[in-house]
Amino acid sequence: MSSSMAEKKSSFDAVAMGPVASAGAAEPPKPPPVTAPEHDSVTALKANFGDALLRHDVVAGNQHIVFIPPHRNLEILQWLRDDPEQHYNLLRDVTAVDYGAGTPLQVVYQLFSITHKRALCLKCELPLDGLEIDSACSLWHTADWLEREVYDLFGITFKGHPDLRRILMPEDYDEGHPLRKDFPLRGRYSRAEQTRRALSQDLAHYYTELEVSLGGESQALPPMETPGRVAGGETEE
Amino acid sequence: MAKKTVEFSLGRNPEMGVDAKPALGPLTPVEIPEPDIESDNMLVNIGPQHPATHGVLRLVCELDGETVVRCIPHIGYLHSSFEKLGEYRSWNQVVPLTDRMDYLAPLIYNIAYVMSVEAMMGIEVTERCKLTRVVMMELDRIFGHLLWLGTFAMDIGAFTPFLYTFEERERIYTLHEQYTGARITTSATRIGGMMADMPKGWDLGVRAFANGLPKTLDECEVLLNDNGLVLGRTQGIGAITGEEAVNYGLTGANLRGSGVAYDVRKDQPYYDYETYDFEIPVGEHGDCYDRYLVRMEEMRQSLRIIHQALDRLEKEDGPMDVEDPRITLPRKTDAMNDMESMIHHFKLITEGIRAPVGESYFPVEASKGELGMYVVSDGGTKPVRWRVRPPSFVNLSALPKLLEGHLVADLIAINASIDIVLGEIDR
After folding, report:
1. Among A90-94, A226-230, B233-237, which stretch is predicted with the lowest mean pLDDT?
2. ipTM
3. CB distance from B273 to chain A under 8 Å?
4. Which of A205, B138, B360, B399 has the smallest count of CB within 10 Å of its CB?
């Protein structure tokens, strides 16, 4: 493999520094404006939260997207859930989008009202130096795992989340957040180093702190023996 | 801890009369005594390599005696970063990634993905393509439910249905193979159409399968519906109310088992599902038994849709792919004889399809629940973001709630009843 040490080092510097805006920080591309029938909830949102409606896009024919400021997400989500005219009781999805090139990350909420058979998409734009937003866990239990996934793969912190830890990647994964555009496809370590780390994982990382505390004294985990032979030829000695 | 009484009710099964008798098993209510031993709670690790977890799911449970006090699921053992890989592939090249997620119903995933891209690009597929896709999706709904039925029955101690359902699944495998050349990794769809028109006589094969399946379902129901052991292990186990189920984001049969008649095919119809004559079965108690009944009925309803779609398909002999130079390749003879078509062919193959700026969240009713494909384009030939709203992932996140106060043995039954597939949870 031709990757030099310098490359590897700089790659990890990016993790330590966190996300930075590139010089020509552009805006995410906007879909072309289309004429579509009015969406009742968007009209109601305009009436109730006029200044909080930053943008309104219509994509794919009839899908409505509303941009709201991140600090007001809970207030608006709760109103959409509880207002009898809206009643968006099903939180379909929480995810994020990174357009790269230092543009803000978008947190995307897909809502559906089973009562009124209406769908709505809400988006919050988070600048790279402020990847924090309030958790929707208190409104929908669905948000619990979905927000953990966004935290894991994008590095967005959800304030007030009861159990915010990685979900798909290992707990001790330290290469960053894989779905961000600045994350290289094959990860930051070499293949050999990735294998070595996977084989020499500490048993303690298999359990969360909560689980270890539940086990009590008698079930304290034994120290894991370092494997004698590891892939990649890198050893402690 | 409160005393727990388990009662069976045969009257809950709509197929059975009020005075029906269970075939075998415990007839009297069972009272589970309160454990009188003072002890610390115990931590038990189940999985990731455990047959009853249906894949590489790991559950860490805190037990008080045999009662589950708390359950913490761990996932990610199969994580293959499909969504990241998709960002490095052209729009059509993402299709093979989709069937590796839910390998128990791959065609639904193939189709859902291209439907989302087509919605984003504003492409309306041909009538023949729509009908073929409807047949395929309903076929794979049955495909997924049959596996669920076999493994669910096995997990609660009945071995025979597993053999029956796998015999039927083998027939669907053969149909997959006849159409796509592959049994599991079908990759059957392309943006704007299918990989090929259906082979001659394929629809007859589907019809033959659809005619034969009800007999197998009847046989399985004879074995399970009034079986005392099955009733005891499923009724009142893992119950959740409709309101809670919505709050936990449950979809598919898990939600309908709790009495909420939410089905994307009815509530946000696509591909003319509103014109088909079929019903959405709903449960009442939201427990394992109701989820079982709902899925059994769903298979029968899917068969109805298949028959109707095949009837329409017989009369429909239009083209399979859309005629749109942005996405469809020119005919082979044109490409070989005419310079412009050759260049057109070359550009489409080397660069891939170019999707306009935009995005689309497209929900379909998969066999596990609502499957949402979210694609974002910045005008290029690759997705900026391709997100799968995984039904099993969200359904599994409600497992700790469903398990509250149940026994370890119930954990296996509940986990089997929510029908998960780890390939799609971990992606």
Report:
1. A226-230
2. 0.86
3. no
4. A205
* Min Cα separation B265/chain A (Å): 12
pLDDT tens-digit map of B81-115: 899 999 988 899 899 999 888 889 999 999 999 99
H/E run at residue B147: helix B127-155
User: Could you report the per-residue pLDDT of B209-220, keeping only the tens digit for each?
Assistant: 999 999 999 888
Could you report the per-residue pLDDT of A161-189, keeping only the tens digit for each?
Answer: 988 888 998 888 888 899 988 888 888 88
Q: How far is B82 from chain A (nearest CA, A)?
A: 10
| DSSP string covering B390-425 | -HHHHHHTTHHHHHTT-BHHHHHHHHHHT---HHHH
Domains and CATH numbers, chain B: 82-324+361-398 (1.10.645.10)
Superfamily the domain A5-19+34-167 falls into? NADH:ubiquinone oxidoreductase Nqo5 subunit (3.30.460.80)
pTM: 0.86
| Residue bearing the bigger pLDDT, B155 or A25 | B155
- List, as one string, the DSSP characters of A65-132: EEEE-GGGHHHHHHHHHH-TTT---EEEEEEEE--STTPPEEEEEEEEETTTTEEEEEEEEE-TT--E
Cis upstream peptide for B73 (omega within 30°): no
Partners of residue B362 in chain A, C-beta under 8 Å? 60
- Minimal Cα distance from B72: which residue of A? A211
Whether A114 and B262 lie within 8 Å, measured CB to CB? yes
Closest approach of B228 to chain A, Cα-based (Å): 35
In whole angstroms, give the CA distance from residue B404 to residue B186: 39
pLDDT category at B34 given cuts 50, 70, 90 is low
Residue A9 has a pLDDT of 54
A144 contacts chain B (CB < 8 A):
yes
Higher pLDDT: B128 or B36? It is: B128
The answer to whether the CB atoms of B389 and A210 lie below 8 A apart is no
Q: Is A62 on the interface with B (CB under 8 A)?
A: no
Q: Do B401 and A141 touch (CB under 8 A)?
A: yes
Chain A residues whose beta carbon lies within 8 Å of the beta carbon of residue B265: none
